Amino acid sequence: MSYYVNLQKAIDYIEDNLKSKMSLGQISKVAGYSIPHFYRVFLAIVGCPVKEYVRKRKLSNAMFDVVTSKRCIIDIAFENGFESHEVFTRSFKLAYGMPPSRFRKFQVEPILYEKVNLLSINSGGETILNPEIICKEEKLLLGIARKINQRDNIKFGLLLKVRNEFMEMVRTNENKANADLSYAVYDYNAEDIGKEDDEINYTYFYGIEALESGNVPTGMVKKVLPQGKYAVFSYDTINNTLNGERLSQGVYDYIDGIWLPNSCFELAETPDYEIFHKNENRIDFYISIK
Predict the structure, then answer these.
(1) How far apart are CA 55 and CA 92, in angstroms?
(2) Burial (CB count within 10 angstroms: exposed 0-12, middle 13-18, buried 19+), residue 128
(3) Where do runs of H (alpha helix) occur along 32-84?
(4) Running DSSP on this structure, what letter comes out for residue 260?
(5) Nearest Cα to 207, choosing from 171, 175, 163?
(6) Which residues pair with 139 in a beta bridge?
(7) What residues have CB less than 8 Å from 263, skipping those under 6 apart?
(8) All domains of the chain, ordered by start, with CATH?
């Protein structure tokens, strides 16, 4: 375990100094190894050379700023530790296939390269998944919202009834962008947070992407999912696997109880949501993180 602990010290040091110049000697000294020794074990355990890891982390942070802000590209380059606009643009284009200005224009939803956590080993022997971390663009949804009590949901299957209700309504609705994907969003009451699970009340929204200019049919509402950073888990409803691994508990029990405490992330204030794929036995869980 000592290798993992010492390498994590170096990774933490890199993270704290991403906007500054770092030498391989400085980083290896934090880990307590000679440069050749450090280079060898870092490559073997992390999966890429130290310089490449630093470059990927800087580029990922810069890419997130490019996508989620309107700040000047050159300011983003300098703030993320790049020596010049030219160096940043060249590195960005090499990594992502286009310069940052074009990347921003096309509103790409990039997969982010996040900090490695070598100490994410659960004491109970559970597998710690590595979900994709993605910067998701804002989505405008059209659907229905219903107040749900968790006890009643368990007893009567209310969420399925809401989904079926919506699918009946949407058959005659032309205001939709992609009917192959359905979105489910949970909005919780703050005062219910301390209650037992079966006493919790929340609003359950179920719908599809909406056309910006479309009218809102009677009985439906529009909902905006804000742009944000998400960890993405894919659940196979037939085989009961999450990102290919078989589950011994519920999806959210695993994500909140095992993955989150062993990750480098915290939950963000933006809502989590689920995407149901039509004609597929698959649900994608988007967990809002920071």
Answers:
(1) 10
(2) middle
(3) 35-46, 50-68, 73-79
(4) G
(5) 163
(6) 225
(7) 117, 120, 128, 231
(8) 2-107 (1.10.10.60), 136-288 (3.20.80.10)
Model confidence at 152: pLDDT above 60:
yes
Residue linked to tokens 């993180």:
289
Reply yes or no on whether the pLDDT at 120 is more than 80: no
Rounded to 5°, the CA angle 10-89-265 comes to 40
**DSSP for 150-213, written as a single string:** HHHHHHH-HHHHHHHHHHHHHTT----S-TTEEEEEEEE-GGGTTS-GGG-EEEEEEEEE--TT
| CA–CA gap between residue 228 and residue 271 (Å, rounded) | 10
SS3 content of the chain, % helix, strand, coil (to 5): 40, 25, 35
Q: What is the mean pLDDT of residues 99-104?
A: 93
Q: CA dihedral in degrees (101, 103, 108, 109; nearest 10)?
A: -90
Cβ-proximal residues to 147 (8 Å cutoff; 6+ apart), any chain: 201, 202, 203, 204
Q: Shortest CA distance to 248 belongs to which of 124, 118, 114, 161?
A: 124
Q: What pLDDT was estimated at residue 123?
A: 47
**Token pair for 36:** 């050749």
Average pLDDT of span 77-98: 93
Angle at the Cα of 35 from the Cα atoms of 30 and 37, rounded to 5 degrees: 100
Q: Max alpha carbon distance in the chain (Å)?
A: 69
What would the mean pLDDT of 204-231 be, rounded to a whole number? 90
Output the six-digit token pair for 244: 């290919």
